[in-house]
Each structure stands twice: as structure tokens, then as C-alpha cells.
Amino acid sequence: MSQYKPTIGIEIHAQLATNSKMFCGCNNDSRDALPNTNICPVCLALPGTLPVINKGAIDMAIKLAKGFNAEVARTTSFDRKNYFYPDSPKGYQITQMDQPIIKNGYVEILVGGEFKKIGIHHAHLEEDAGKLTHPDGADYSLVDFNRAGTPLTEIVSEPDIKSTEQAKRYLQEVYNIVTSLGVCNGDMEHGNFKFDLNVSISDSSTLGTRTELKNLNSFRNAERALNYEIARQIAVLESGGVIEQETRGWNDTKAVTFSQRSKEQANDYRYFPEPDLPPITLSQSYIDQVQSQITVLPIDVRKDLVNLNLNADEQDVLLAQPATIAIFKDAESALKKPELIKKAVNWLVGDYQSILATNKKPHLTGERLAELIELVESGVISSKIAKSIFADIVAGAKPSDIVAQKGLKQVSDDSELENIIKKIILDNPKPVDDYRSGNARVLGFFVGEVMKQTKGQANPSKVNQLMIKLLKE
Amino acid sequence: MPDLNYLSITEAHELLVAKKISAQELTEFYIGKIRNLNPKIRAILTVCESQALKQAKKVDTKIASGAEIGLLEGIPYTAKDMFLTKGIRTTAASKILEDYIPPYSATVIEKLDQAGAVLIAKVNQDEFAHGGSTENSSYHVTHNPWDLDRVPGGSSGGSAASVAADFGIFSLGTDTGGSIRQPASYCGVTGFKPTYGVVSRYGVIAMASSFDCVGPVARSAKDAQIVFEVIAGKDSKDSTTIALSDKTPRDKKPVGKLKAVFYDDEDSNVVSKGVAAIDSSLLNIQTEASIAELVPLELALAAYYVLVPSEISSNLERYDGVRYGSKAKDSKDLLDSYMKTRSEFLGPEVVRRNIIGTYALSAGYYDAYYKKAMQVRTLIIQALNKVFESNDAILVPTTLEPAFKLGSKSDPVEMYKTDLLTVFANLAGVPAISIPIGFEPTTGLPMGLQIIGKQGDDIKILAIAKHIQSDSNWHNKLKELKL
């Protein structure tokens, strides 16, 4: 049997989190809006209307270019992609073909402990279409234009991806970039981040015929669809068949890919330069100014986490949350020592995640997390106390304030502890005898008693040390 | 009451200021004139009487309050049906927009509204401005006021005919390949196509976005300039607009060298004679042989009829019956609905241009047609730049012949050829004005002279036209028209 190797290229559509739409002033967030309420003459394509480019979308693309290690085109222009469909009010989509705003970049993915570069051929700006619904049994369809004109960026990879695992890592990494830069809300349920997968297999250096898996919207489905499609293509070739160049869909329930449109049925979109929008020229100083607003890139955080020996799952938890990355970066610069930074990560991927599940408005800052870790490190509080006050800190309390307020400072004072221990020894003659007759296990009982009486504020190592000393007297 | 026929903007303004007439009386006079004479000319698609009277009354209140009024306040005008007018039916002379009432007004209509001008009627045109005779209107033809058996030209035929017949003091037109200048020439009026981008296209039904220009049709260059300066300027809603930067003094004699070039054809003799009669102490005009030696006219026409239909085929896709406009009944599915709607409600010339454009942009043809035509466009720009290196303007006939008979050009290519001398200005985006320059002796019909300048020289071109008109009487011959 031949050894087939897959080659995968991915096109990602990420919705941009701008305030207004790509070419008009309408609100870009219609999640809670009634159908056809965020619309205007421009996005309805009334006669005589003209598009005006949203500067916010241009700025986001400039930031993305940095995330993709890519060039920003100094001159970028728009084109029309013509097709008739009721969700396309103008009868054409304004997109970019000849001069996309982002080109020649790469994304680094971590596979098998090594970083691999996946090329970004280009990424361009375009507008989304409206949304069609087909009511059951009705002889009509409904169209909602709230989404019409929403800015999208289409991110087109090179066919550098060689396995399902790499594809998954690539999708995750791009997702991390667009969300951490604040360019995309990343709400996959609302279609903020969708992708088309181009797959071919070959047992030689010549690429095979590719199929395109259209419109996937979850990482899990991408993985399942790719595995299915690679296996399907192998089976076709093994049985002496040929792969047809076609567009295929993914049926989630049946877990199969299915043919949607052959190459012959492909539309001719009659692209031509958008005459209503003159090309945009971007100066280097403007590009620099916009990119200087970026404080951290997810790949840099990942490299930090790799150096801290965090596993991939822990990395992903952090990297999927831009706000958490920001907390981490601030804590990192406050703490400096790797062993303490690792503690910050533990907090963030552990306790913090369980609190996030219920608290949607956390107030944790990197500074406060660092303060908490320092309080434990310097022995002011125990790690147990730290855990008990963490929720308050996430809710907005300053660690040192809450420690002072609740009187949680660890008791390390010898004379104070000695008094407590002496009293416990007097009150418990039986365990004292046991200990003295050689049963070392009762030491745990005494330490527990001290902790009970100090409400957990006693310094455990101090207690141990004093207890042994006093029992021996 | 003073004689209100064929008033200039300034004359009407002076009558209003002197309270010899009210704005309401002036508006009623024009509406009355339309009632009486339009059945002969058929220049009008919609009369906006109530809105016009409301606007006129506002002006009268202002005059009564003793406030000063601007030049355009109370001045009645007409607009081609390409301009969206809030609350007033706007059709582009197409059945597909037969009942379309826009929810907003074009930027230029708003500007004129704010300047106090009174829109009294929307006028006829070729459907979606596709044509050169106004015969392609889906409603009716328009007759040339000089000879009712002849076309007024097009596509802004209603604008030119309404100004020639005095149904308004000026009109707004659009010019994609000569659609203001050619009908102005045929109707003996002045029509100005500004530099591309100097006047906003927002709210103007698109024909070909990279060619469409909005401009005035008036009875003199002086009036055209008054209107132009109100409507010109950058518009945040139209990304292709630029500010008007021409610093030519408004009312001084223009200096510089003008090159008069004629097409090698006997019909242009009327124009060359007219130019020869211009007092040389006013303008330094040097005559050369043929425009075709300076500009590749045939190439320009061919490129124009590739690029314009390409843009049309895309710009007209929105008329699909889904959101507004006419929609065919009894279609069995989506494709059927598109096909029936567009077949039933778009006229034959519109369909023809859509097919040509769709073909030219198709995969495998794009390079041979669209791209090649874009290269020709660059050539035209270069050729004109060369001429303008040593000349301030080109003087050239607007058309080869005077207005032709209704129904006489049934071959579309024959019709396209009437644009031969006008399209190159649109390909290059330069300003061009057509002014009356004489009468063709056998028919007695007016002929126009084009003055074409370089990009941004709008005021200079208008100044040259004004000086020619200050020394000639061709533009006043309208007053002798007997309707």
C-alpha cells in the first residue's frame, strides 16, 4: 500500500470586531438585534448609495499583519465579486483580490515540541452577506440584512499544512492571534470564525487534486472532517478511482463529507476593480503608529510558557483568553523569577478558570496576582489562606487589604505559638504519652489542633519545629 | 407682472429681491408653463408641485423678513430622474423603478435645497442613462423644442429640452460619455461636465461609477457656474470626491492659449465658423487640423463601450426585485424571479449593455476586453496631458451633426457613434462644457462647441465659455423659439 501524505491549505473568515460595518455607519453588533434593524440605505444597496471604507477595519488589518509576521501593502485596493443571491444586496461583494492589505506572512505552530512555520499567502478585507432563513414548509425565504456589510478578514494560508494535527494547531494559533489582538470576538457559535479547508493527498512530490471542505465552524469538526476526507481520498485512489476537484460540505450528524458543487459548476464572479473606492495608500509611519498599540503577541506568550515547561493544554487555556494573557504578562513582569511566574500560570489555568466559569466580570490584575504570590512566598500568609481569599481578589479586593481586614496574617511569632502549644500539651495528656512512647504519627494531631486554634494562620513549618521541641521537654 | 420667459438666474434673483415677483409666483409660472407646453415636448416625468410651492413659500417668508437671499433662492429648476429625491418618485426612466420613492435625497439635491433652489420637476432621460436620444426612456420620447420631429439628444434629453423650452431656469444632468453636452448641443443650451470627482455622486443612480459626472444644464455658462459652485465639493459619502481647487479668478478675462481642433468633416464647418468669429482680442485661439490627430477617437469610443457596460453590468445587479422596485409575478423559483423581473422591467438597450458588460468581465475575456480597454484609457489620459502641456483648453465640436430625427437611428452602433467627440473627456475625467456656437444652415438647428480643459480646471473652462458668450449671442437665440 502506498504512503499517502495530505497537503492542506486553509482559508479562515474572521469577523472583525469594529463598532460599525465595513462600508457604512451601521452598528456592527446585531447579536441582540431584531432582524433588519441595523440597516441603512448603503447596506441595503438602495439606488445611488456608495461605500465608504471603515478606518477601524483598516487599522485592525494593520495590527493583524503584525500578528502574522506579514507585510502591510503600502497600496491596497478593493474589487467587486459579482453574483446574484438575495443575501447579496448589491449583487456583488466588495472584497480585495489584486492588492490585499496583508501579504507574505507566517504563523508559528507548536507540533511535537517543535515550532513550525505555516505561510500566510495573504489576508484581505471584505464584507459579509445578509442571512437567509427558510421557514419550514413556507414557499418563501426571509432575509435579514443586519449582518450585510459586517467586515471580515479572509486569511489564506499556503498549502504548508501536512496533517490534521497541524491543521488544528494552525486554526487554534490563528484564533489566538485574532482574539488577542482584539480584532475578532471569536464567538464561534455566532460564526465569528469560520473556515474552508483545501485537502489533497499524494504519494509523490506532485500534489494531488484537491477538494474544498466549506464552511466549518468548530475545531472539532475541522479535525473530524479532515480525518474523514483524507481517508475518503485514500480509499478512492486505492480503489483505482480519481479525485474530482469539487466543493464538499460536512454533515455533522452523519460525520461524512458530501459533494456540493463540481468545478464545472463553479461561478464566474467577474472580478473587477471597485470603481467607487479609490486605492488606499498607507505610510510606514502610520503602519508603525497602529502596530505600536500592540502590547503582546500570543506566540511570544507561548514561547514563554514553553520555557516554563507548561504543557500544551495549559498553554492553550491561557492563549485562548486575551484578557488572561494580559494578566499573565503583567504578573510576569512583576514577579521576574521563573518559579514564581510558573505559580502565576498555575493560578490562571487552575483556580482562576473555575471562578471564570461563574464570574463573567473578573477584576483580577497581574499586579494583584503577583502580590498574592509574593505574600505566600514571603510567609505572610499560607497557601491555604491564599486559596481561600482568591475569589475575593478576583472580585476586586487588594490582597494585602483583605489579609489585614480579615486578620489572616500567618502567626510566626515563637512566644505566641509556644503559649498555644504548651496549652495543647497540657490539655491532651493521652496523645502526649503516645508520642513520648514512640508513636510519631500523633504529631499530625497536634499540628491540626494548632491550626484549628489559629484559624489556619500559624506558619506550618514553625509549628512543626516548635511542637517537636516542646514535646521533647 | 414682468416678462418671466427665459430669465437668467441673476435676472430672476433681481426680480425676487426687488419684490417684483414672489418665489411662489415664479414657481407657479413655471408649473403653468409645463402644463401648457410639456404635452408638445414631453420632457417631464414627474411634477413636484406641492414640494416646490412649499420651498418657494419658505423663500418668500425669508424675503418678507427682510433677510438677504442667495442667488439660487427661489430659482425653479428641473432634475434628471437619476437623482434621488426624498419622497418624490425617482425612476431613472425605467419600469423597474416605476413606483420607487426614495427615503433620502442625493447630496447635490440637498445642497440645492439648502441653497433655496426650487425643484419643480423630474425630467425624462434614456433608461438608466443608456442612450443618446432619450428614446430609450421606458415611458415616452421627448421632442426637441427646435424641431418636434427630432430628438433632444441624451441621455439628459429631458434636462436639455426643459431648459430650452424654459420649464426651469436650469437643470441637473449626468454625463457618463457626453450625456450633458450632446443634448445641450442639440437643444442650443449650455451643458457642463465637471472634472470627475468634483461633484458628489451620492444619491445619483449609478451608470458607470468611474465615468459618471453630475453637472448643470443652463442657458448660459454664467448660470452653469453659479449652479456648479453650489453643488461642487468633497462629500464624505462619496470616496471618489475631491475638493474644487481651481484658483482661476471668477470674473476676469481668462489668459492663455487655446487650441481649436476640428473633426475632418464638413458638418463641423458651422462650429469652425463660429470659432473663427470669436474676437481674437478676447482669446488666443490657434486652429489646427484634426482632433483625431491628437486623440485616438475610435479607440476611445471602443474602450468606452467596453468599460462602461462592464461597470453597468455590476451597478445594475441590485435591481433584482428583492428589496425594492418592480418584481415579476408568478415566478416558480429564485432564478425564475430574477430572470422574469429583469426581462420584464428592463428595456432592450439596458439588457444589451448588461450582456456586453457581463461578457467583457467574464473569465477568459477580461484580459482581452476590460484590461485592454483600461490600457486605452491610460493612452487617452496621456494624449490629453500632452496637449495640455502647451494649451489651456481644446475647442472641438460637441457633435458631428445637429439633432437627428426621432426613430432614425435604430442601429445601436449608429447611436453609439454620436458620442465620438464626447467620450474621451469622460475616459480622462477632464472638465468639458458645450455652448451653442451656430446653426446648421439646412436644418436651422443649433450646434455646440466643446471647451475641454485639464483635470481641476473647471473654473477656467467656465471662464472661457463665459467670455465667448459675452461676445456672442448664440445662447440667446432660445428666446426666439416659438413653441
Q: TL;DR of this structure?
A:
The complex is a heterodimer of chains A (about 475) and B (about 475). Chain A is an alpha+beta fold and about 475 residues long.
Radius of gyration of chain A: 30 Å
Tell me how many strands of chain B there are: 11
Order of helices and strands of chain B: HHEHEHEHEHEEHEHEHHHHHEHHEEH
CATH superfamily of chain B: Amidase signature (AS) domain
Structure report:
The complex is a heterodimer of chains A (473) and B (483). With 473 residues, chain A is of the alpha+beta class. Helices cover 39% and strands 20% of the residues of chain A. Chain A has helices at residues 55-67, 164-180, 219-238, 284-291, 298-307, 312-319, 322-335, 338-349, 351-356, 366-377, 383-394, 399-406, 414-427, 429-436, 443-453, 460-471; strands at 5-15, 71-72, 75-76, 79-82, 92-95, 102-111, 114-127, 131-133, 142-144, 151-157, 193-202, 211-216, 246-251, 256-262, 272-273, 280-281. A nine-stranded mixed sheet of chain A has the order 2-6-7-10-1-11-12-13-14. Chain A has a three-stranded antiparallel sheet with strand order 5-4-15, with no helix packed on it. In chain A, a hairpin with an 8-residue loop joins strand 11 and strand 12 (211-216). In chain A, helix 13 (414-427) crosses helix 15. The mean pLDDT of chain A is 91. Chain B has one domain: Amidase signature (AS) domain (Amidase signature (AS) enzymes). Chain B contains 16 helices and eleven strands. Chain B has helices spanning 9-17, 23-41, 49-64, 107-114, 157-164, 181-187, 221-231, 269-276, 291-294, 297-315, 334-345, 348-361, 367-390, 412-416, 423-428, 458-470, and strands spanning 44-47, 76-80, 118-123, 170-175, 190-193, 213-218, 257-262, 284-290, 393-397, 432-440, 445-452. An eleven-stranded mixed sheet of chain B has the order 1-3-2-4-6-5-10-11-9-7-8. In chain B, strand 2 (76-80), helix 4 and strand 3 form a beta-alpha-beta unit.
